[in-house]
Design brief:
With about 300 residues, this protein is an alpha/beta fold. It folds into 2 domains: about 80 residues; about 160 residues, Dna Topoisomerase Vi A Subunit, Chain: A, domain 2, CATH 3.40.1360.10. The chain contains 11 helices and 7 strands. The strands form 2 sheets. It has a 4-stranded parallel beta sheet. Strand 1, helix 6 and strand 2 form a beta-alpha-beta unit. Helix 2 crosses helix 4, helix 5 runs antiparallel to helix 11 and helix 6 crosses helix 10. It is globular.
Length: about 300
């Protein structure tokens, strides 16, 4: 690690300094693997797996105070890296907030010319693209670049949900009832219930779905030995003492593995290789841009 960088961090013998250095190492690995942007949640789970931090809730330091969440210190360490300029701000995605913004230009001709550079060609041979549903908003944030590349709709349910499914997702099936769903959710008692409830709510309105669980599956738990990182949860909805079960969050698989799983599956489903369509897309953009070059842009 560059000495100049180290001098900008907190002292290495302090808790803050150790977390800053661990977070920086994880982010550098993400950068080398092409797994940028990432999210605090993914970084935190990787830190847990390496024994850098714990997911166990610590008690409050003083009576009457709320205990700090297990991820707070780590999140603050990542923010320190961004604030002092060691890590670019855009390396971390915040999927919980967004800005509504609208395009415009000084003329319609200028608007059309500007649009050529972002024009996309159909990848799915006039069939609807797969719909990617996930339980976690943090997961949707890191899947968004892949979904955009493959022109797939993407939505996070953020746990149990009802109205959003009916008002926003159901209409997507009216003209295409056979649209495929790729689902990603936690491997635990509650996660399985959320998946089942989501599927049941949709099927109540659109009929039987082409539903595929992409992650986390029983096979993935065994293949990647994820039970090493499972935590015990108690579902207090069940009386008298609740149900105790193993819990493995989707993020435990790791960002590179999850994104790779999605890309591989979409490549299998595509009627034509992605690169072939992108090459035609590039050629058509250049041709249309040349044709539009003579358009006036004055009001």
């Amino acid at each position: 690690m560059n000495t100049n960088v180290l001098e900008r961090l907190s002292a290495s013998h302090t808790k803050k300094g150790r977390l800053q250095r661990a977070a920086l190492e994880l982010l550098r690995e993400h950068g080398e693997a092409g797994a940028i942007p990432t999210s605090i949640r993914f970084l935190f789970y990787e830190a847990v797996q390496r024994g850098i931090v714990s997911k166990e809730q610590r008690p409050a330091e003083r009576p009457g105070e709320r205990p700090r969440r297990p991820d707070q210190d780590f999140s603050e360490a990542v923010m320190d890296l961004r604030r002092i300029g060691i890590v670019p701000w855009h390396w971390i995605v915040d999927e919980t907030r967004h800005v509504d913004e609208w395009r415009y230009a000084s003329s319609v001709a200028e608007f059309i010319q500007d649009s050529v550079a972002v024009a996309r060609l159909d990848l799915w041979d006039r069939e609807p693209s797969p719909l990617i549903l996930c339980e976690s908003r943090s997961l949707s944030g890191v899947l968004a670049p892949t979904a955009r590349q493959y022109l797939c709709a993407l939505a996070a349910t953020n746990g149990q949900v009802g109205g959003f499914l009916v008002t926003t997702i159901v209409p997507m099936f009216r003209d295409h009832p056979d649209r495929r769903i790729l689902y990603l959710g936690d491997w635990d008692h509650q996660g399985h219930q959320i998946e089942a409830a989501t599927r049941r709510r949709l099927e109540d309105h659109v009929g039987e779905l082409d539903w595929e669980l992409l992650a986390v599956t029983d096979e993935q738990v065994d293949e990647h030995e994820l039970r090493r990182f499972a935590r015990t949860k108690r579902d207090k909805r069940y009386k008298p003492n609740g149900i105790v079960h193993e819990a493995i969050e989707t993020e435990t698989l790791g960002q590179s593995i999850i994104v790779g799983l999605l890309q591989d599956r979409l490549d299998e489903l595509l009627p034509v290789p992605l690169e072939d369509v992108l090459e035609r897309e590039r050629a058509q953009r250049e041709g249309v841009a040349e044709l539009l070059g003579g358009l006036g842009t004055n009001r």
